[in-house]
Structures
1.
Amino acid sequence: MKVKTILVSQPEPKIENSPYSRLIEKEKVKVDFRPFIHVEGVQAKNVRQQKIDLNNFTAIILTSRNSVDHFFRIAEEMRFKVPDSMKYFCQSEAVAYYLQKYVVYRKRKIYVGKRAFNELTPLIKKYKDEKFLLPSSDTLKAAVPDALNELSVDWTRGIFYKTVISDLSDLRNVYYDVLVFFSPSGIESLLKNFPDFEQNETRIAVFGNSTVKAATDAGLRIDIKAPTPETPSMTMALQKYITSVNK
């Protein structure tokens, strides 16, 4: 069956001429964006209940833009003035760049990984005498605490925000040829919103091994996978699939 409509379970990209824009133009398909999950901040009192005192830390490990936003939100709610001496360990350049929303870059000690968390750990190891805070969501990949424990550094995880399933009830009678997922939480949201979901001719596209596992465990048929050596991005995987079925 040909592909004419695609629903991506993420917010619409804010950049002009995104890979999805090129896919739409080239393949003449309709692509809608709808976050299946969203993030909600945890209140400062809940952070205190985790026995976290921001005064006790000399370094912050930031793995995402959400972790940046919610660290500074909690600091403000707790009336904690972040000292100039605070060190920031950012998982990627994108996270480090986003940090400029809150701090004057040239006046801060900022250490940047390449992309994956294990590429940041050598920098953390260099400063193993610091007291590290990891602001995170309630869902955290096991690889992160495992890597920090292996370094034998003094670190504490704080749950500063939570991943929440979005209400998708308005989509109950809306059908798409392809549903695109990037996390196990997206699969969970689909099944929570539509417990009677029947895949039938709907194609499922998934990104990453953990999403593949979640979809498989849920009994879904996976038609499109990324990343692969041939299709390292989701848009490339979609392009390849659409080209093959829309002949």
2.
Amino acid sequence: MSGINSQCIGCGTCAAVAPDLFKVEGIPAQIIKKLAPTDAKSYKEAQSACPVQAIEDF
């Protein structure tokens, strides 16, 4: 299940990598749209870039 867990520190990396999917206005970051299969690549790039592994599997 996709989402952001409690490890999030609000660093903004996810929003920098995939601004169409994530925003940071506090902790935790938020997914800003309903995810579609076409979002998988961007999502996984943000997941890989997250310094605290706060982004759950797609």
3.
Amino acid sequence: MRLPEKESSFMSTAQQPLHPSLDQIASCVSGYDPDALPVASAQQVIRSFIRPVDSVEKLAIRAALDRVLAADIISPINVPAHDNSAMDGYAIRSADLDDKDVSLQVVGTAYAGRAFSGDVGPGQCLRIMTGAIMPPACDTVVPQEFTRDGNAQSVTIPAGVVRAGDNRRFAGEDLAAGSIALAKGKILRPADLGLLASLGIAEVPVQRRLRVAFFSTGDELRSIGEALDEGCVYDSNRYTLYGMLRRLGCDIVDMGVVRDEPQALEEAFRSAAENADAIITSGGVSVGAADYTRHMMAKLGDVCFWKIGMRPGRPMAFGHISSGGRGAYLFGLPGNPVAVMVTFYFFAREALLHMMGASPAPLPLMSVVSSSAIRKKPGRTEYQRAILSTAADGSRSVSITGAQGSGILRSMSEANCMVVLHHEQGQVAAGDMVDVILFEGLL
């Protein structure tokens, strides 16, 4: 199986020599044991081994949504450009305020985009609209609704309705010229596009999209549309992987189902390594008589095989494989559908974001009440599919979806969060607080 050849400009950091080696990095992890590796230790090894892809392109800001900034964006101007009014009202000199009502002469009106060219002297004020430039002599704005008896000639300012400096925006208050408006590594969101436009910036440098090849292994797997022979199942993993990779903004290549046969596997791995930045496989990483995947991974690169202290998703492979002078990072995920999703989110996701040049924050945890007891032994991390509910009084509680077998994909569809039971954590009683990760924004 061959992937379509990339254009000649394709250049992956993954193909460059990696220093130090995966074994060297792993040896620095305290108590490293590939047959009993805690989740945090596996994440540490992956984080230390991954290098970002070094390739940049310039895009118009409308095309840059969800892309990763490749350089800091420096503000070329002050935002706002001038001191201006935050309210519709009257610009005054705070020296004219008193402990009793004050009547001031109105000398004109300032509009947004049209500066007032006159002067404002003692005992005078200026009718001003939101966003209009403050006259140099004025330092305070009285909102219109706080005034009395206003007309074209005068207005009364009641005592105590404002303090000196109220409702005045300063030049550069939002962004000062020369300061960082958006930092390298930020994934651009709609508000960021608006910020760029407010600075007059039409194009931005972004990291090129990450190219990820993925395939499933197993003679029992069938693609949608094929006859489902006895003992066979439809391959769901490629569809969940497709969705998860699309959510990350990757360019993806679905290589289908690869037979448990050495020649087919070697061809698939070599093609993927030569044409992608990362490879994700599902199945074939546990020890089994018909699993040739482990052997082929080891043959082609620097790969570790782990038994991770977690549920679901115990077996996993990670490393780097090469072919034809090019290479790619490799994530060998388990075969069970839920285990694929869990290992992707807690291992591959952060690594892929790092390869994109992003600066991923840890997935946010929310502490809520467990509505029922949850069985758990210390010594492994468990991720339980669950439903977070909000009561009429605003209180929140979480309940697991039922049976937590790693083949029950329906439970991932029904759940809206995942309960995280940490490595050293034991039994959970009804009413205990537990950590949850919301699916919204993740799935």
4.
Amino acid sequence: MADYTYQEPDSEDFIAALRAVLKNKGEADLLSLLHGATCTISPSSQYSRRRWDAMWTEVFFEVPAERLGDFNESTETNLEKYCDLIMPKDAGFDVMSVSVAPRLGSQGTRMEDEVEALSRVLESQENHIQLPEDLFLKGQEMAQAYHFLYLAENFLRVFIETIASSKDEAGNPRQLTYPRDVHSKIRNRKQNEQRNKWLSVRGGSDLFYTDFKELGDIILNNWEVFASFFPNQAWIKTKIDEMANCRNLIAHNSYIGEHERDVVRLNFQGIIRQLGSFI
């Protein structure tokens, strides 16, 4: 195996170095396009096949929405060349692609203003794709729904971890057992995290490597521990399954309607009321 670090450069240092190289090479147009831009370095889990054991890597640039229309295939190809040039060779990342997207919700800028700017850019493009008029509004609605789901899922993790670290009525440490398939999924996710070190570490315990439905499986698998906290198994299973279904739709960029958003909100509120006095 090649002696690579597989450590990403700091994104701010990377784009600063890129600007310095562009200035030195007299690439004034490219330099101008990157004014106010940020970048994210995104190695994949696939080899680039350009160098032995080097990873196929993409650099994502977020630029002010009004500047998005100034980028084209030629400028992105040039950016790709310079990004690969400045990427530390011992990192083991070969820059194979560059993507440019609008920067939304930047500091000091209202999200509504950024969305309006992006809309103007899309409308100004020749032969542009006609997006539904309500797409941006639906995106904001899904962001709010996901916020509830994020809080609910992590609330359950904290609850389970709190109970697992407590002692039973006899003063003995509690021992939770995970279903075999949950153990397998946790192991696979940890292995994937080790292979893709650019991914953020999920958390300090195995519970952060589980999803909504698996949290429900853990509760049901240890019902003798959790029975006193819930009315019955069906009560908590139904609530978790309903929220998990909504989460999966949002995670795949699908839209959930007002009824489903109410389900998420009311289920979360119900769980909080049920467990609020215990944790």
